[in-house]
Amino acid sequence: MQLAVRLPLLLxxxxxFSRGQPHLGHPESSGTNSSHEKVLGTDxxxxxxxxxxxxxGFAFRLYQxxxxxxxxxxxxxxxxxxxxxxxxxxxxxxGQTQRQIFQGLGLNLTEIPESEMHSSFQHLVNTLNLAxxxxxxxxxxxxxxxxxxxxxxxxxNDTRAFYQAQLFLAxxxxxxxxxxxxxEHVKKETRGMISDLVGxxxxxxxxxxxxxxxxxxxxxxxxxVHRTRLQDFYVDEKTTVSVPMMVQSEHxxxxxxxxxxxxxxxxxxxxxxxxxxxxxxxFGAMQQVEEALTPELLTRWNNLLHKRGYFYKKVELRxxxxxxxxxxxxxxxxxxxxxxxxxxxxxxxxxxTNMLNLKMSKSFHKATLDVNEVGTEAAAGSxxxxxxxxxxxxxxxxxxxxxxxxxxxxxxxxxxxxMGKVVDPTEP
Length: 428
What we know:
Layout: E1 7-19, H1 49-69, E2 75-77, H2 79-90, H3 95-104, H4 114-128, E3 135-146, H5 153-163, E4 166-170, H6 175-189, E5 205-218, E6 229-234, E7 240-248, E8 252-258, E9 263-269, E10 274-281, H7 286-292, H8 295-304, E11 312-320, E12 322-329, H9 330-333, E13 358-371, E14 375-378, E15 396-399, E16 404-410, E17 415-422
Parallel strand pairs: 3-4, 11-15
Antiparallel strand pairs: 1-5, 1-13, 2-17, 3-5, 5-14, 6-7, 7-11, 8-9, 8-11, 9-10, 10-16, 12-13, 13-14, 16-17
């Protein structure tokens, strides 16, 4: 009898603020003047297509940047956790700093007003936190504030209303104690999966913003444990490792091979409303596939793989059993995506507090993923037409025995929760 263990998929994002050099050019208010209060408490179940496009576009831009920065390395992160953190931060940003956040996230305020943008994130957070059968998702934000520092009422109220942000006081003069407080909170919220999100913080830190997301899900078509066998995995032309390979041959699955982009795409459904896309480039084609990834291509694949018929076939599937993690300093990455002022003395966060010289000093992001026989555990196209190869009469063998890309997708909100690349399944 198969063990019904449910496994979590999770990550956390941290933004740390400190006192920078005074910047006298900050006006008292130079941001947009949208009325956030008009949309508080909205229970509209619709998903804004512009927000979906923006979030997906940001996910692929960030993936391509991380892939370029860390070639030949495992990658795993949650674009949704990062974009939610930045959207929440925009509530306290003003002027050019706020505009850079919107532009960096791919948000066009002529298509979606700022107030509607925040209400869309509010709907997303609320949806992820709804109780669900056979699947658990949880997303939240926490502000750790230096004792005796006060937030502006509007920022505090809006972060709580739109993003369900909790507020804790911390003594950052006791750097070790504050670090321990934050890490213990993240460990609790991620069910123990992430225990060391942040190293020791500097004593000039005055505020830390943490965002986390958590998923526990079971495969709709689980693998049989006793069929898992050691098999070769070809990391590159010179490196081969031995990995436990899970095997299925009795099930039908959604898959296709894109002839114009050399890769196979498999859709694996979870119990509940989430699914995973596994993208297997042909030998030597990883870079070509990565460069071609766009929201339009994912939408095309998703639409095709939701149709019954040609793409739903019996397949002999071989997928590694693996655990990987990703840990990134976003203050080194985000400026390359256009967020140039956030970590400089030009930053304008005058909507957070009356302290005029507030700047973001560090940003950490960590995610973990565990894929096994029963499910997933972790604490996140071109416009041209393409043809599809015909399937053989006997079951097609889809063997993930070389580097592949994955994306975990939440159907109800049409957002990518997690993205990654498995280069070496034996590397944690």
